[in-house]
Specification:
The protein is mainly beta. The chain contains three helices and 27 strands. Strands 15, 16, 18, 21, 23, 26 and 27 form a seven-stranded antiparallel sheet that branches. A six-stranded antiparallel sheet has the order 20-19-22-17-24-25.
Length: 366
């Protein structure tokens, strides 16, 4: 009896030793395992059953090993741990698309929608291996675009995205290259276009004090700003050049501004933000400087709409301002007498034309 037990023990020892020293095969035919496999499982009638658990049970696994696999019973999905997060085998990776809206300081990352995704995570790096990050694993919500800002000019960036759901995270998307433009600038004060010539016509000068009240809007296109050397960034002040004074001074003189997709005007546009106002303004000969109460951020791609208005109760003569000829429809507005609230009034006496004051802007590029 003791001898039989000893034989069985020795047999088990040698079998175990062989299993440890070599690869292991599990099958119904007795076939040897493949030499390249530590474990070779084969069957035509049965499968492999991974540990089955809920999402909560999966998440409760302490210090999961990289490559650990489970079957998620909540999601009916195989999950594996990649060393950082649980990856869903059923959640597709988004396809990253080319960047748009590229300027010297930003770009818009784009990708395709993934069915079942509840959010997306984005990485941005200055190297294609993503060994360091500008943005790392940022949850941007359930969207398919994200505006990446605060970048440096003339730098090549790389981005990739992942979809996420309650079941886990997808694998990384493909990598997209997005290089910011090399138009790098700091604080500047520049004319938008030409020096222009003096103009005192009531339809042209924004200081049309031959009338009680005036409200004008002007378009400055992104192409004009870029050609003048402006970068995306804060516009902090504006100047207009006066060659001859008029009267009276202008009450409630106000400047408003906004970014716009428009390149022409045929009616007043709303949505402007007040950046300068004063109770009474008497322009002097030369450049009149209007420092904004708060900077206006120009995104580098939109047109800028500038609105100038005042509200008097008397009239005399226009101030003469240097103006320039621009494209048709870049100037719009009107004047009248005897109204109140000119800065919001919708004038009926209006004109759309191609004569615009010469603008000089102070801006801070990034």
């Amino acid at each position: 009896m003791k001898r039989n037990l000893l034989c069985v023990g020795l047999s088990l020892f040698f079998i175990a030793h062989q299993a440890i020293a070599q690869n292991v095969g599990i099958n119904a035919t007795g076939a040897a395992p493949h030499t390249s496999a530590i474990l070779d499982v084969s069957s035509t009638t049965k499968g492999v059953l991974f540990p089955r658990m809920t999402t909560a049970q999966r998440n409760a696994i302490a210090s999961p090993a990289e490559g650990l696999m489970v079957y998620n019973t909540d999601c009916k999905d195989i999950n594996f741990y990649n060393g950082t997060t649980w990856i869903s085998m059923l959640l597709f990776s988004p396809a990253a698309l080319s960047a748009t809206g590229i300027t010297s300081t930003q770009f818009t990352a784009n990708w395709t929608n993934v069915p079942g995704a509840t959010a997306y995570f984005i990485d941005v790096s200055t190297n294609s291996a993503f060994s360091s990050f500008v943005i790392n694993n940022l949850n941007v919500g359930n969207v398919t675009t994200y505006n990446v800002t605060g970048l440096s000019c003339g730098i090549t960036y790389y981005y990739r995205v992942r979809a996420v759901s309650s079941c886990g995270t997808s694998s990384n998307s493909n990598t997209i290259v997005a290089a910011t433009t090399t138009l790098c600038c700091g604080p500047v004060q520049r004319l938008v276009a030409t020096a222009g010539s003096p103009n005192s016509n009531s339809w042209e000068t924004p200081y049309s004090t031959f009338w009680h009240d005036s409200r004008r809007q002007y378009i400055i296109t992104a192409a004009e700003l870029n050609a003048a050397g402006f970068c995306a960034g804060d516009i902090t002040a504006m100047q207009l050049n006066v060659s001859a004074t008029g009267s009276p001074c202008m009450s409630g003189f106000t400047i408003k501004i906004k970014n716009t997709a428009s390149t022409t005007l045929g009616a007043y546009e709303g949505g402007t933000v007040q950046v300068y106002t004063t109770g009474s303004h008497c322009p002097a000969i030369g450049w009149n400087n209007y420092v904004f109460s708060s900077p206006h951020y120009w995104d580098g791609t939109s047109s800028i709409l500038v609105e100038i208005c005042f509200d008097n109760s008397s009239y005399s003569s226009n101030y003469t301002v240097f103006c320039e000829t621009v494209s048709a429809g870049q100037a719009y507005g009107g004047y009248t007498d005897g109204i109140s609230g000119a800065c919001t009034y919708v004038f009926s006496n209006t004109i759309t034309n191609n004569i615009r004051p010469v603008f000089r802007l102070n801006a801070m590029g990034f």
